Amino acid sequence: MNQANTGAAAPLYHSIFRPALFAGQTVVITGGGSGIGRACAFELASLGAHLALVGRKLEKLQAVAQELQTADVKISCHVCDIRDEEAVTATVAAVLQTHGKIDGLVNNAGGQFPAALKDISKKGWEAVLQTNLTGGFLMAREVLKQYMQEHGGAMVNISADVFGSMPMMGHSGAARAGMHSFTETAALEWAAYGVRVNCVAPGYIASSGMDQYPPQVLPLIGQAVQGVALQRMGTEAEVAAAICFLLSPAAAFISGTCVRVDGARPQVRSGWPQARVQRKTEGFTGFADPAAASAPRVLQNLAQE
């Protein structure tokens, strides 16, 4: 199912990239109805890209399309469970029928739930791996086979900060680490087709997805920033900016790599005193109106406590 609209330039987002950088290009964003996917949609639309938003809930996709209705871009919405091979094949075909081409793919859709490894059932384990690894593979494979194999393009897979370990998220960590390896192999195998494949690994990002976590996890979220060298959480827009760079011509010789957006979190060591940050880096939001950014409610609540 899809919805298309056109309009004037979006005024609510100020990209750090030059205007019209992606004018005339079509980019598919999975998980485009919220969080990092939504921020990426704003970033790319502000740069002139036509968008195909993919997700499981049409109303969320349509809400983002409505927000961007003033943009001078074409936006289509496609309902798809990326774990379903037949649905993925049909969705990519529908995108091509609507837009005629796919210049970029942002493999952003994913999901997980906090749990210790010993408490994760086989069903829960497989569900997270299918969502965070298998679904991304299926999307990338179909985009390649149905279009990029003959025309080239760029793909960006979204991973996570799996460097060292991912306690209470072992299922997601295994899937995200698999996405790193998939990215490297795809970059090698698909280079002959003029296709670049890279990965972005967000660290602790103030994303609306945090609102789905159970109450017992909230104290951990509040303490997480203490383990980040830059002593703050990242923003969805900062992740979106890294994705757009990898899709852009500036990254034409970058493939098979992983860009970390984590404030040097993996470099923090127990033997090195974590000094109080004297000068914090200012987070990039992109949204002219701060209320337009999807800041998680849990962080707002923690700040008031």
The order of strands across the largest sheet is: 3-2-1-4-5-6-7
Number of strands: 7
In the predicted model, the low-confidence regions spanning at least 5 consecutive residues are 4-10
Q: Determine the fraction of residues in helical runs and give it as a percent range.
A: 25-40%
Average per-residue pLDDT, rounded, comes to: 89
Distance between the termini: 43 Å
Which structural class best describes the helix and strand composition?
A: alpha/beta
What about the largest sheet? 7 strands, parallel
**Rg from C-alpha positions?**
19 Å
Q: List the helices and strands in order.
A: EHEHEHEHEHEHHEH
**Into which percentage range does the β-strand content fall?**
5-15%
* Count of individual helical segments: 8
Gross morphology is globular
Task: Report on the architecture of this protein.
The structure is a single chain. The protein has helices at residues 35-46, 58-67, 85-99, 122-151, 170-189, 218-224, 236-247, 297-304, and strands spanning 26-30, 50-55, 75-79, 104-107, 153-158, 195-202, 258-261. It has 305 residues and is α/β, with parallel strands linked by helices. Helix 2 (58-67) links the parallel strand 2 (50-55) and strand 3.
